[in-house]
Specification:
TMP_synthase, globular, alpha/beta, eight-stranded parallel barrel, 8 strands, thiamine-phosphate diphosphorylase activity, binds ligand LCLJCK34, transferase, binds the ligand Cc1nc(C(=O)O)sc1CCOP(=O)(O)O, TIM Barrel, binds magnesium ion, about 15% strand, ThiamineP_synth_sf
Length: about 210
């Protein structure tokens, strides 16, 4: 399996956002370092998720970027995405692995070392770890775990750790120093006035 990209762009499908425009700006900059996670609102239909994921797969292909689908693994299979991401309210990791198959990329959300080790034992190939910092993108999350929380998880597993939650280019060095392989962002790119430039700043922070 090729190594996992370090910059995970999670689609922002809230009203007024344009996830495909952000993706078109980020792809030529991040290329194969980009992992695009197609994440739609809970009330989106499967058809809407499928159409977005299908377009994302097509945009990613020429750049060697990876497309994953959040939660809806049947959509991941339908569009031939590289894999998916599951959390506490989704299919259990072992079941998700059975659905996607042995070779797929499978991410799982983990917030502490015990849950992280269990997710890896069940078949996760990377972990989304957070929230690292305060975020306004998703409600109902526990308190931020900071770089120290990322360090605790990264020390407990041997799969890539992707730090998520309020991440900006400025916060990347501390997260990398804590053992994160990469970061996942929504707002940093979706709300950027210049997503290509912000992508370059994130990539520089992730790869220097
Ligand atoms: C990289 C990454 N990490 C964590 C999450 C959160 O997943 P989950 O807990 O299932 O919450 P939703 O995103 O489904 O609301 C993620 N999507 N990606
Ligand atoms: C979807 C999601 N999951 C999180 C978790 O900690 O599980 S934080 C988050 C939102 C991340 O958005 P932003 O980069 O705008 O803070
Ligand atoms: Mg989920």
């Amino acid at each position: 399996m090729p190594s996992l990209g370090r910059l995970h762009l999670i689609t922002d499908t809230r009203p007024g956002r344009d996830p495909l425009a952000v993706l078109r700006a980020a792809l030529p900059v991040a290329r194969a370092e980009l992992v695009v996670q197609v994440r739609v609102e809970d009330d989106a239909t499967d058809r809407e998720a499928y159409e977005l994921a299908r377009r994302v797969v097509g945009l990613c292909r020429p750049y060697g970027a990876t497309c994953l689908v959040n939660d809806r693994l049947h959509v991941a299979l339908a569009v031939e995405a590289a894999g998916g991401h599951v959390g506490a309210e989704d299919l259990p990791v072992a079941a998700a692995r059975r659905v996607l198959g042995a070779d797929a990329v499978l991410g799982a959300t983990a917030r502490e070392p015990g849950g992280a080790a269990a997710a890896v034992a069940a078949g996760a190939s990377y972990l989304g770890v957070g929230p690292c910092h305060a975020t306004t993108t998703k409600a109902g999350l526990p308190d931020p775990i900071g770089p120290a929380g990322v360090r605790a998880v990264a020390g407990a597993v041997d799969v890539p750790v992707i730090a998520i939650g309020g991440v900006t280019a400025a916060s990347v060095p501390a997260l990398r120093a804590a053992g994160a392989h990469g970061v996942a962002v929504v707002g940093a790119l979706s709300a950027s006035p210049d997503p290509a430039r912000t992508t370059a700043e994130l990539i520089e922070a992730l790869t220097c």
